[in-house]
Amino acid sequence: MAWTRDQMAARAALELRDGDYANLGIGIPTLVANHIPPDIDVTLHSENGIIGLGPFPTAATIDADIINAGKQTITELPGTAYVSSADSFGLVRGGHIAASILGAMEVSEGGDLSNWMVPGKMVKGPGGAMDLVAGVRRIIVLMDHVDKAGNPKFRRENSLPYTGRNVVDMIVTDLAVFDRRDRRSPFRLIELAPGVTTEQVAARTQAHYIEELT
Amino acid sequence: MVEKIYPDAIAALEGLLFDGMTIVAGGFGLCGIPETLIDGMLAAGTRDLTVISNNAGVDDFGLGLLLRNRQVRRMISSYVGENKEFERQYLAKELELEFCPQGTLAERIRAGGAGIAGFYTRTGVGTLIAEGKELKDFNGETHVLETGLVGDLAIVKAWKADRFGNLVFRKSARNFNPMAATAGRVTVAEVEEIVDAIDPDHVHTPGVFVRRIILATRNEKRIEQRTLSMVA
Fold first, then answer.
1. What is the C-alpha to C-alpha distance for residues B187 and B203, in angstroms, rounded to an integer?
2. Fewer beta carbons below 10 Å: N end or C end of chain A?
3. Which of B81, B175, B222 sits opposite A124 (nearest CB)?
4. What per-residue confidence (pLDDT) applies to B231?
5. Min CA distance, A7 vs chain B (Å)?
6. Contact at 8 Å (CB) between A127 and A69?
């Protein structure tokens, strides 16, 4: 049985370490915040300029001047710091953010990521995605294993314009987890969702990978 | 004595506007945008603007108002997804658009204001963003040359100002405003409050960058995504 979105988010949350500063993308990655183990300190970064993101506000505490990178209203926490967007992306490019968990349209076996543009459709722009994948130390992709038409999203080569080349370190889908030791190594299939078989994963994956189930 | 405080947006923009000019605007989404000065630009009707701003507002708010009034010829932005009129004008080729990754945009504005002509970054290497730009390897990694940006005018939103033009921003409404304030040949700030004094240690943007100040008369602070916690 495939993992739900929450189960995917929970699996990705296991990758975060005590003391990490981390960035969560829009969509399923936002759910990761609900699954960070309570015994570790993880500080969430929002690229518009917040270090230390709190949960959504209540109607009584909502403040239009506190929004995350998805333009959602959020709250501050003890220890929150606001910085300019230039300083915020300085943190990103300078390698001061340990992990970024984000969505993808396609990932290639060489770790190329595409998640910002579909040719022929209105292009909304890259936002901060290109900066994040170029600068954050570890990039974890959370995505459905196949697209709405059933086509594999983990591919030999991407068909869509790149967000970054050779930037992805781990992929968590609804069926499986892939990772690689470093950016020169191939991806390994290391986990399956309960009841999912290696054959099912192979049939829905175009990329080459090594099976190293633990 | 130099008087930086102006009575309203029209007065503060007087003599600064011309068709074909470039404007740097602070704000992220609809947060920390200079709402009152955008109204002033709308009233002035200045045309063929190049606007450097992370986003383009929404159809009926923020920079979307200038787009709807056909005052903008070109935008330099990282994300413009929330604006139907933008999409229509862009697809009809009435509007030019230069996409710039968000962090690169912030740094280009910072660089422009700091007198840095260009800088190399890994962001965008191997993507459409780097096409036609100079590449250079540093420590075995490829970087792309990006240029600094300046405007004829910068318009910013701050929380507090004193009469010297020192500014304090509020929470995540800071975003692009501090860099924008440095990158205008002239910078006009609108603020929620004009105060007698700001602790020198608490100044975010020093008054050297700010030529004119108005008390904002529009502080709607529209929320794009109103998200609330479930409270038991």
1. 17
2. C
3. B81
4. 57
5. 20
6. yes
Q: Beta strand B167-168 with B151-161: parallel, antiparallel or unpaired?
A: antiparallel
CA A20, A24, A30, A31 dihedral sign is: negative
Q: For residue A201, what is the domain's CATH number?
A: 3.40.1080.10
Q: What's the Cα-to-Cα distance from A19 to each of A38, B18, B55, B57, rounded to whole Å? A: 12, 51, 33, 36
Beta bridge partners of B213: B5, B189
Q: Above 60 in pLDDT, residue B95?
A: yes
* Alpha-carbon distance values, A212 to A51, A142, A195 (Å): 36, 20, 17
B positions 70-129 inside 8 Å of A (CB)? 77-81, 87, 90-91, 99, 101-104, 106-107, 109-110, 121-129
SS3 label, residue B95? coil
Distances (CA, A) of B1 to B5, B95, B145, B164, B193: 12, 43, 43, 11, 21
Question: Quick check: B224 and A71 CB within 8 A?
Answer: yes
CB pairs under 8 A between A and B: 167
Backbone angles phi, psi at B125, to 5 degrees: -60, 135
Q: Tell me which of A15, A47, A106, A109 is the catalytic residue.
A: A47
- pLDDT, tens digit, for every residue of B47-94? 999 999 999 999 999 999 999 999 999 999 999 988 889 988 988 999
CATH fold of B9-215: Glutaconate Coenzyme A-transferase (3.40.1080)
A106 given a catalytic annotation: no
Q: Which two structure tokens, joined as six digits, stand for A107?
A: 């990932």
- Domain extent for A178: 5-211
- Residue holding tokens 């309960």? A194
pTM: 0.97
Q: How many domains does chain A have?
A: 1
Contact A62 B228 (CB under 8 A): yes
Q: Among candidates A100, A200, A126, A112, which has minimal Cα distance to A155?
A: A112
Tokens of B6: 């102006």
